[in-house]
Fold this protein.
Amino acid sequence: MSLRHKKILLGITGSISAYKAAYLCRLFVKDGAEVQVVMTEMAKEFISPLTLSTLSGHPVLEQTHDSRSGAWTNHVALGLWADAFVVAPASLNTMGKMAHGIADNLLTTIYYAAKCPVFIAPAMDVDMFEHQTNKDNVAILQKNNCHFIEPGTGELASGLTGKGRLAAPEDIVKALQTYFKKKLKLKGKTFIVTAGPTYEKIDPVRYVGNFSSGKMGFAIAEHLAENGAQIMLITGPTAQETQHENIKRIDITSAEEMYNACINHFPDSDGAVMAAAVADYAPAASEEIKLKRHSDAIKLELSPTKDIAAKLGEIKTGNQMLVGFALETHDEIANAKKKLKQKNLDFIVLNSLNDKGSGFNVDTNKISIVKKSGKIDTFKLKNKHDVAKDIVNTMIEFIKAS
Ligand code: CTP
């Protein structure tokens, strides 16, 4: 289990071990996480924000507001953005504030706004760590669902020996990995995901195709896999790649090949997400030798391909889920609802080519999810990984509710 695509807020407080937070930040980033660092005033005495902004790739946040422009840092949005808030090192002072309702800096303000799990890795001198006040604070924070990453025992910067040394950065990373592994909501489930375009052969050198890049389908496959599901990714020709160990990739070229692969694997799956842009028509007959150029116009006869989603909708059992896509240019909601019904889908992801930033070959997408219950959820323009997360979360809700 890696931290790929996880959004981590790393809070650094004033402790000599703050220098280890730089290595921790590096380990998070190396493991695939996106890291936003928040530092207290005291933390900056121990380590430079420049180090952390360079390692995380984002400017370090320090103040609740910018005193020159008057702009404030949206602690609520940050608390909602994060998948985990990690305070490492956590000083006695900051833990005290977190236990007793004191929000006098950005880090503690975010703590009180955070909706995500909070991890605390304390670091302080042994006498401070053993102090009854600290023990009481730890008990309060544990009662408030904070996860503690125990400090190590050994020689401390003060020269004393005892408990209080910041846990090894590797162990902090492991604590998060273990936490997220336990939370895998789709463990034991298997899904088919279709992705990319299909190419329909005209002759040995030409085809009928479309502009689909495969990005959306690959992002969905990855998020499902990151939630513990096993994925059969059936993809048309694409430059996309995936390394996730839970994803088995089947490369196909034509709509007919995609149909056969889907029909083969669907009965053993818990459902399918049909993100591919399958050609609706294919040349009625493909030529074995290259068509030669003539001065006359030529006509290409096209026959309809099989509708894969509709076929899966026909054979799906009560325990299987089917998710479709609709890319529309007009009457979007009405068309999406029609497809939802015709293909017996559980929900359909609608994107309109009228929305800027949506559609093929871009990194962003703006979707609405139309459910068979009639409910429609509309989302903001997001990058395709965040869109995939919204789609996967809707699938998880659907499974929970059924
Ligand atoms: N789909 C499919 N097999 C096809 C065509 C489409 O599985 N031969 C799936 C797509 O992957 C998508 C959904 O059906 O999940 C809707 O695809 P779309 O092309 O929008 O709809 P069509 O039914 O082809 O209708 P139209 O092109 O006329 O809008």
